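Let us practice reading a record.
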Amino acid sequence: MDPERFPATAQEPAESFLAVAEELLAVPSTADRPGDLHRALDLVLHFVGPGFTVERFESNGKPSALVYPGTARQRFRVILNAHLDVVPAPPHQFRPRCEGTRLYARGAQDMKVSALVEALVFRELAAGLPYPVALQLVTDEEVGGRDGTRHQLEQGVTGDFVIIGEGSGLRIVTDSKGMVAANLTAAGRNAHGAYPWLGDNALLKLHRSLDNLLTRYPVATEEIWRTTVNVARIETPDAVRNQVPAFAEAWLDIRFPPEDADLNGRSVQEITAYLETFCEPGVTPVVDHVDVPHHADRNRPEVRMLQQAARNQGHRADLLRKHGAADGRFYYQRGIDAVVFGAGGDGQHGPEEYADTTTITPYYRALEEFLQNFPPS
């Protein structure tokens, strides 16, 4: 490890690394800005530098890349996975600022800083490792991951163990919830608002259906490992107050653990039929997509090795379950263990998102130790 980048006696990364991190954080790489998705990807590839094979992919306008030593792709013993896209934010959040040990910006915790550390450790170690390793860079995780990680897997990319650099504070996430994206649509009959008995209020039918669903899955008021339902939007095209609405729609974001037998392992058709049991007459569920939960074997030697590497940096390296979805689910579907392991921070997707700069060097060193001790076969 270059002592100019990470001083051997300090927990703070060198200014040179932070300068590149701030340059990357200043790129508004959101799904609606394809030019900036390419810019973020090219910036990290330039940071990795020459001497590696770079395979570029693109699906539905979302670019991604796979970087590895040598000239031929093979089954990789380890894949370091990172996403470079972020959710939208006001312009000021793309002007990074450091306050003490906090680096504030959109994407600082989720997950550009960790991505850059993965790129650095890959650059420093990959060519000298006695086994094949790859750096996987994608730009669509925040909008589902289907055109990045999943697309690459569909093109034949594969491996034995995957580290996804989502911010985790050097803890290891072995389980993530599955997700159902669904809408409830309600059909009724228009009438004058003064004569409601002449109409059929679609909005009220929709509300009753939502009440039925939320009775089964109450809104969580504290962290809990069970199925949750977020009602993200309720709308009707009616533009006047004195009309009974004939149509209404609700957006649902459902997250479920593997233990929920009503949802886990079910097809779109089966989940649609299940949601129908909560619906009033005239209300129809429409399931857009279903993503399975993610699970990695906690007793797998690689997980224990990664845990020990983090502990050697003074971190507890707890094993966690994550309520959000991540690209690890695409590996899990193919029988490949993937874990989330990244630097620290807080406030992801919020107005005060930040990376904890005191965790950057320990994160690098934990990855370095893990890769250097990883068995060749």
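A brief commentary: DSSP finds nine helices and 19 strands in the chain.
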